[in-house]
Amino acid sequence: MSSMHRIIAPFLGGLVFALGLGLSGMTDANKVIGFLNLAGDWDPSLAFVMMGAIGVHLVMYRMILKRQSPLFADRFYIPTRRDISAQLLVGAALFGVGWGLGGFCPGPGLVSLVSFDPAAGVFVASMLGGMLMHSLLSLPSRRARKPAEATC
Amino acid sequence: MLTSILWASVGGAMIGLAASWILLAKGRIAGISGIIGGLLSARDEQSAWRSSFLVGLLVGGGILTTILPDAIAAPDSRSLVLIGAAGGLVGYGTRLGSGCTSGHGVCGLTRLSPRSLAATLTFMGTGFLTATIVALAAGAR
What is the pTM of this model? Predict the structure, then answer.
């Protein structure tokens, strides 16, 4: 029970997530670039990844939240912030530039590590560096206020 | 194109299923950048599920390389220097903006979160713009 709760359940989630990324075409960085590049022979198929994911999650989300609590946790941790801050927009804009430059977003980047392609290694290493830099820079403000409960 | 759309939808549905499972099992949002960034910034009661999820992600990648060797491909048109810069921007940007394609794009849009809608429109916009500019610049050279 304890290992199911702590290890196996999230492991299965990650496994299915990776298989979904692979089947959908998201781990093919050339396909991602072909989707984001509007100047070439545009391949719109990756738009259906988000539609498929939202379609399934929309139905399940409503059913799941009818429960009192999750299977292996005391309560649901759903982000409640609704403000559109400058940080949110600047961060998203920088992320998009990086996505268009490299063709990797975080999930596919990590999954691609197993290919042992140098590009995936360089991407993940510098992504971790960028994340660490954000942690270091935001340390003082994080001490000052209550830590954000659930980030996406 | 049609098979491409079909696989995109099937793969997308599996991503939606995985996100739903994490919500049902742990009550958490399956946002990849939050999971990695959370592990990097704190050792806490969430570390166990986050690490297990990431191990699952890597094992899933390993399965992909055996059953679908062509599924994982690095970009042909990008130098390693460009990819290094891209990684830094993705890492810093997703943490500053509290999410990526999964947390904002899938989980957040499902909840009709105004923050996630704004973030998704923004990163899709700059993503399209950047990839298009890079392609045009390469073509003009």
Answer: 0.94
